[in-house]
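During the no-cost extension, the postdoctoral fellow (Dr. R.K.) reprocessed legacy sequence entries with the updated structure-token encoder. One reprocessed record is reproduced below for audit purposes.
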Amino acid sequence: MKNIKIALLDMNNNHVNQGMRNIKEISQTFKEHSDEDVSITVFDVRFKDEMPDFQEFDIFISSGGPGTPHKEGYAWEQRFDDFLDGLWEHNKHSEQKKFAFLICHSFQVASIHWNLGNICKRKSYSFGVMPIHKTAEGKDDFLLKNLPEPFYAVDSRAYQFIEPNYERLNEMGMKVVALEKVRPHIHLERAVMAIRFSDEIFGTQFHPEADSKGMLENLKIDKNRLAMIENYGVEKYLETVDRMDDPDKIVLTQSQILPRFLQYATEQVMKSLMMA
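Re-encoded structure tokens follow.
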């Protein structure tokens, strides 16, 4: 019997992070309810220089994390680039596809690596529960189609992806599937919030793994709380805290995107094995 091997890539560089707890919990829940034999291995990419051999695993989830997504000369950066290239080439030439989900920091690093647009620092840190808008392509994407328009997700970032290079995206067969909210009073380009990199690789600028418990923990951090109050005002901050458990906001997003990704990826891996 085939063992579905999931690799979780921790990009938090030894910083305490609610996102990694969420990713582990979602993966563990999937394992416990799956009809398949599932194993989960965690790799501490930035702090311990751990990197999976992509040939040994079927599914990868790579987390968000602090700091700049641009290169600073660390050994892990080249290894992560090699991982992305290896995954891309493998899927191009093999019937046994491998699947990856890239979150926030990982999404930014991949977008820089593939030269997809301008990934630059925001004027101020963004933190909160934000409306995310699907593009025309996003409305048909199976990971997003069960979510409303707009849907809500946790946004936590110092950097942004703007000015997408559509020529490059088209050349690579990639699609922008979600954008940040419209801000009519601010003359800034809307940031890219999700990309369908390929049939097997998906990435989000937002945090689809986030839950209300983690969000409330994050709001205890001064930087996050102040960023949210600065962006939205005290009234909106209090309303967000009050709405944290709304079943149609981050609770819904968490229940849909990553679980559907894991289910779909597992089904495709098993299907390709039966056809081999």
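The helical segments are 18-33, 75-93, 105-113, 136-140, 166-172, 212-218, 222-242, 250-275. The chain has one domain: 3-119+133-147+162-210+252-275. The remaining legacy entries will be reprocessed before the final report is submitted.
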